[in-house]
Structure formats: C-alpha cells, structure tokens
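User: two proteins, same treatment. go.

Assistant:
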Amino acid sequence: MLQQTLQRLAGIDTVSPALLVCNESSRFIVAEQVREIGLENSRMLLEPMRRNTAPAIASAALHAMENGEDPLLLVLPSDHVILDTPAFHRAIALSRTAAEAGNLLTFGITPTGPETGYGYIRAEGAPTGSIQRVLEFVEKPALALAEQYIASGEYFWNSGMFLFRASRYLEELERFQPAVLAACRAAISAAKSDLDFIRLDKDAYAASPDIAVDYAVMERTSHAATIALDAGWNDIGSWKAVLDVAEKDASQNSTLGDVLIQDCNDCLVHSSSRLVTAIGMRNTVIVETADAVLVMDADQAQQTKTMVAQLIARERPEATMHREVFRPWGSYDSIGNGDRFQVKRITVKPGAKLSLQMHHHRAEHWIVVSGTAQITNGDKEYLLTENQSTYIPLGVVHSLANPGKLPLELIEIQSGSYLGEDDIVRFEDRYGRA
C-alpha cells in the first residue's frame, strides 16, 4: 500500500520526489519498498519516537523549506486505497488554487453509507465538486447519528489527506500548538543525515506534544476548506476493510496465498507461509503469518486493538517483532530457535556488506545456499560459493559481503549462551552503525 501511494503520484503536474516520514525502526523496510519500485530520489525523515501526525507534518514542512522554498505539501497516509486515480488527480488540481491562496485543504470523501469507523467533516452547502468552507470536524459517530449525517447531505468522511502551503501550516501550528513547532524546529536544526535518511534529533523531538493534525490545527483554524472526492477511497483500518475492497469469488470469499476453502461464505483467508484450510466458515477473517495466526468474526475487526494490548501487557514478542527483519544490506528471517541455538536465513543484496563485528556469547556457522560470499574471518579473507560453509568462533572479528550481481542467500546457525541482537560489537560499518 505504501508503494501504491507513491505510484499514485505519477501524473500529477510539478510534483517533487516524495518525502517519507516514518519511525526509525521501520526505515529499512520502507527503503526496500521504495527501492523495489525504482523511486531512487525519495527522501526519508526518521522519527525517533511516535508523536502523531501534527509533529510529523511539521517536521516535513520545515525540511521542505530549508532551501528557501515554500512548496505546497500534499499530505498522504500510506494505508489508503484509491481506485479512481484520475478522479484523485482532478481533485488535487482543483484544490491547488485555494491552497496557494492560504487555505488548508482537506479531501472530503463522498460517503456511501452511515459508516461509524470514520470521522466526518461538515461543509458549508451541499457537495458540488468545488471548494467548500469547513464548518466542523466530527468524531466517529454512533450509527443513528451517522445516518443523520448522511441524510443531511452536508457531511463528508474525513480522509486525513491534506493540501496546503508549508508556511501556512506552520503559521497555524504556531498559533494553536507552539510547543509542537518549537520542538520540531529544534529536532530539524539538530537533525543528522545518515545515507538516504534524515534523523530527527531524539531529545528535541521527544519534547513535542503527542497530537494529531486534526486536533492541533484543522479543527481550530478558520482557514480549513474541503473538496469532495469520489474516487473509490477506503481507509484500510481493519481486516474487515481489506475484505470489503478485495476481489472475491462467487461466494464473496477473498483468498491470498496457499489457501483451500470449502463451503465458506463472506470470508477473508490470508496465508503467508503455509497451507491454510477452512470449512463451513461464515463472515470470518483468518490471517496466517510466520509470526502468528488470527481468527475472528469479521464484524469484530475493530477489537484487534484490544488483543494487541493484551499481547503488549503480557510482553509477548509478537506484538513488537517480526520473524523477517530488514537491514540496509538486506534481510534475515529467523526460521528456527531453541535452547542455545538459532537458525537464520540471510539475504545480502548485490554489492552490500555487513559490518565488521564480533560476538561475546555466540559462535556462527555460515552455509551458502546461492550466490558468492566474501568472508572476513579473523585475519583470513576468502570466497565461498554454493554449498560451501565456514565457521566463525566466538570472539573472532568477522564480516560478510556480496561481491556478485545476484542476491547472496545463506543459512546462519548460531550457538552459544546468549543469542540476542544486542550481542554485536561493530568495528567498522558503511551504514554508520559502528
């Protein structure tokens, strides 16, 4: 969906390379997603911790103005579905003049029914396809109130997408939430470049209040405007929403991956790593990944938040970690573990190199599955190819690189008294982690 959001920008006049704002823990998977679709000029602003959308947008606006420019900012969440891209582009073009005149534009989604999972925007006058003044923003309503909103014809769904000039957003933010702007200015001023990443200063950014852009600015400004957008929009906030927009069979089932179903209706069955079968299910969501399995009534999709809260309260690693972990040099997948051992499948991108490092508590065996590995093992350097292996004793300085033009895949077997990722002493690293 991140890739689709970026690709959706193609065809918009005078659009600059995208600026992505993400948590620093997501930086490598985001970079890999961008690389896969060939957007080499995109920049990435890294948040050291979550502070919600108002500080994130403020940091992006400040960065965009660093060279004396004052561009229009098109603010897009990365988890939306928009089926009619030309209609989306037309709405942006119609909004440009109003944004250039100092208005803060939000895209109001033409509602298709009394949805209780979205916030609403009440606009001045009936929707006409032109720019309208925003009268109020409304929180997610109960069903009866949502039905009243739809019947009145005065309300849009709140999309969370915006268009405004960078300086105008910062002016309104300074008026209503000066502490947010002050923290973001300090975080940008002390930011450090790291490869393609721009790292916001941690201490400065931590001082910002945690607040959404709607609460900080849009609900308080007198310059909020909206335009109707009817483009097959969906905010994929739950697995039920995924089922709603997915392609379905004659029984209204949607399947993905290695799935076999029998006598099922209105079901979503998603498999990532193994065969999943279902028999006689109705209105059910089944999601299998290498980390965990979720089974629920589709109408209870909003309750996943409470389940995640339980996982966090019980300190379950599934709430915060994935088996597959992305790094600047590639990725690794923890495919097995037990008492004093762990097995990983490692993929190294062509031309990439892991840091020169050592471990205090574990030894490692490397077995090349495909490609060519350039090994540093103590004072020795050598090449390994398919089906060859090597042993790295505990405490020995070592490194791994891919000198070839194809991805290098190998199996790593770790053994020792402690196998945590923090048992790494880096001596040199081309990615600035030493």
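Protein 2:
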Amino acid sequence: MSGYCRSTVGMAAGLLSLVLICAGPAVVAQERPQTHLLVITGVGGEDYYGDLFHRWAATLTQVATEHLGFAREHVVYLGERMDRAPGVIAGVSDKATVLAAVERIAARSRPGDRVMIVLIGHGTARGDRVLFNVPGPDLSAKELADALGRLSDRTLAVVNTTPSSGAFVQYLSAPNRVVIAATSGGAENQHTLFAAHFVDAFAEPGADADKDERVSLLEAFDYARREVDRAYRLDHRLLSEHAQLDDNGDGIGSREPGAAAADGSLAGRFYLAAADTGDPSTAQGRASLALQVEARRLVDRIEGLKRRKLGLAQSDYETRLEALLVELALNRRAHRQGRLP
C-alpha cells in the first residue's frame, strides 16, 4: 500500500447533538436524523485489486469523516485484510462480520435515520447464485436482503459497485430504499470502474449539479455514470458496465433516473451527510481533500499503467510513467505547502 494511502485515512471523532434551551426547565430537542455508513471491500484475488479496492474504500471513509462531518462511530469499514490500514479497517469482511455489522447498525440507529451500505470488490451471478465475493463463504444477495429487513424503518441505500451487481437489484429492492448497481445485470461480469467515480462524487464540486453545496445519491450516480463513460472512451474501450438505480421498490433499475422518471425521486433527496446540517467542511479543508483525492486517482493510474507495461512499447511506458510520477510529486508538494488547487 502506498504511503499516500496510509497518511490520508485518518478518522475524525465527535458526536453531533442538538439541545433546545427553553424558558424554565431545559428540554432536550428531538435529535435530527443521522446517517450511518458501512463500507465493505471483498476479496481482491490479487494484490492489485485488493489495494485498488482499499484505496477507494479508504477515500470514501475519509470523505465522510473529514468532509461530511460524520462521527467516527457512524462509519464502519470492513476489509479483506486489516493490515492494509490498522485502526481504520474495523474487521475482516467475512460473511458473519458483515451481517453482524448490519445488525449493530440496526441496534444503534433510530427509525428515520439514513443508512448507506457500499460494496466494493468482485461479484458473480449464475442463475439464482448471486454473490458478493468475501473472505470465506461468499455473501449471497438473498442473505444480504434478509439482513436488511432489520432496517425497514430507516431510509436505506445499498450501492453495489461490483461486476454482475445488476443481478442484486431484484433481491434488494424495497420501499424507502435506494439500490444502485454498477452493471445492468449479471452478464456484465468484468472489472468495474463505477466505485472510483462514485466515491469521488462526494468530494468533487462538479458532481453538485444543482449547486446547493451538497451531493445527493442521484447526483453521485449521474456523475459516476458520466465519468465511467468518459474513462472508457479515453481508453478506446467498449463500455462494458451500465449502471442502474432503483428507488421505487419495483426491482427494476433505471439507467437514466431523475426526479420525473420512474426512479430517482428518493435518491435525489438522499444526501450523504452526518445529519441534516449541510456540509460542515471549510474551503481550506475541501481544497486539501481535493488534492488528496486527486493523488489517489494518480496512484490508481500509475498502478494500472504498470499492469499494462507488457502491452506497451518501452519508450511509451516510460514517458507515461514519468508524466504521472511528476504530476503526483507536484500534487504532494502542493499538499505539503497548503496551496489551494
């Protein structure tokens, strides 16, 4: 794992509370709905994917705590290997631990709270065997759906960014629930890029389409979909992942959701924020985070280039690698010196 990743996944702590002081005896106000975030990375299969999935998950947890005001206890990251980020990854992402984490969120959250669960890794779908690949026995779509029944009185979002994730939609769909999948069905089973861009949406000003200084799940979905399409075009590859969103409970996802479409109304009102208080981060903090997110993107590109080395001319490979390393060095220098992008 890069030194960048180790240095940029620190977690903030603290508990948001609201107290209403009235004349006479103090009265404690009804707390506003809180948001709970569970991020899960499955098995990578090889170090390249394991490290890649970790960088995406670590970025999301960092954005939540440093940019969106989440208390550390409201953010749980389960990963394939805890040694990738000791103290940040709360536990190994085997089936039992994942299901127990859902149970704990159900116990500590309240009706009306928001819960978002993000799956990052590999997935498979063969007939009725629809699986998220985790250490040990895989987690099936049905097992996850059964566990989520405990959260029926919360506003829930499940974001499955894995290959074949489209097959999960019919299992996970329910009223008052947003289900996002990186693919249109189980047949789209190649490595997906959706997670990287979905995570970036919450730190990118460009994702805030209505300019209200916060990003809804609908805006994050649209941003990620556009950026995935652009990445494939720039790489001269045929698009092999078509994301979909379902939030009306009918089990049928939409590729182009919106407020006036069959899907998109609930996602447009679901904001990844600690409470209904807006974005608490400062301009300086947002600028610093933007540099760190861009550094993670550069690390992703460098590692991806290394994997394609054998298919490139040596001079082409060296030119590309040098350009990326210089860009990363300039990014890190700007971050150390506190310069705004």
